[in-house]
Structure formats: C-alpha cells, structure tokens
Amino acid sequence: MKEQLLTPEALAVYNSLQSGAENASQLMMAEKWEDALASIVADSPQEKLMAWALQQTLNHMTSHEQPVQQCASEIQQWLAERDDARRFRVFQLAEKLGFDTPVGALGLSLFWMDGSMTPAEFDAVYPEPHLSRLMLLCALKLLSIEIAAEDPPLKGAQTLLAEWRAAQGGY
Asked: 104, 72 in Cβ contact below 8 A?
C-alpha cells in the first residue's frame, strides 16, 4: 500500500520500524508535506483516520452549508454503523459537493472502502483496494490547502499533523 501512496523519494527514506507518525515527522522536516500525510494514511486504521479527518474538516471550515453538514452527518452515521444504502447516499451527496472538496473526497473514500460500486441489481464491481486510502489522502491534502489559506500548503499540513499527534497522545 505504501508504494501506491508515497513517492519513490519518500519510500527510500521510509523506516518500517518507525510509526507512520514518526516517518511523517521526518518527511515534514524535509518539507515533503504530501508524503508526510501519505505516511499517516498508509499506517493508520482507515476508519479512525477518516473519522478524525472529518472532524478536522468540520472544525476548520469557515462555512457550514447544509449540503456539507448533510454529507458529513451521513459519513459519521456510516462509520458508526455500516449500511450499504447509506454508503450510496454518501456517494451521491459527495458527488454533489464535488470530489475536489474535503468532505466530498472523504465521501468518495468511504464509498470505495467497502462494497461494490454498482447497485445490488447489477453484477458487483469493486474498486482497486488502494483507491479508498488514496482518496483519503486527497481529502487531507485538500484540507491542508484550506487550512493554509494564503500560506503554502506545508503550513496546513503542519497544523494537521500536530493535531493528529495530539489526538494520538503525542509521539
């Protein structure tokens, strides 16, 4: 999975004996913010990271529009109790928001995480296993850009990684 998320340069310095958070810290020191986020995505339990990313997105948003709130609520409910009909609702809401938004990207990540991409009446078609984590990484990158605002995305990624460390009890 790491090979599909991290750049070759990051893989060359990645230490599998360290946690994703420790690797992320080293990558941030080298200003490889995208690889630092990828390290967290590769090494963290996906549902836990998704729930945390959703909360961070809601915490950092300046506008809490109804469609965003509705999609976020459906994601939270799905994470609490998996339901295929809800998973399809999340996909539809995320598509309306746009997959180029943090909540929309999280919705697509959730949709690809579990189950077929086709409705029950059709033959099942499953996404490639790495796509859900890749879209989760995209959501974190989009969120980093939003947090950074006028600053370089590196600043937003630093904020996110500091908040991730704090949520994990530091490291």
From this structure: no
- The answer to whether the CB of 67 falls within 8 A of the CB of 43 is no
Count of all residues that appear for the chain in the document = 171
Nearest C-alpha neighbor of 98 from the set 149, 138, 132: 138
The answer to which of 44-48, 64-68, 92-96 has the lowest mean pLDDT is 64-68
**Rounded to an integer, what distance in angstroms lies between the CA atom of residue 163 and that of residue 149?**
17
Per-residue pLDDT tens over the stretch 101-124: 999 999 999 999 999 999 989 999
Structure tokens at 83: 């339901």
HSE value, Cβ hemisphere, 13 Å, CA-based, for 4: 15
CA dihedral for 38, 74, 83, 88, sign (positive or negative): negative
Q: How many CB atoms lie within 10 A of CB 134?
A: 19
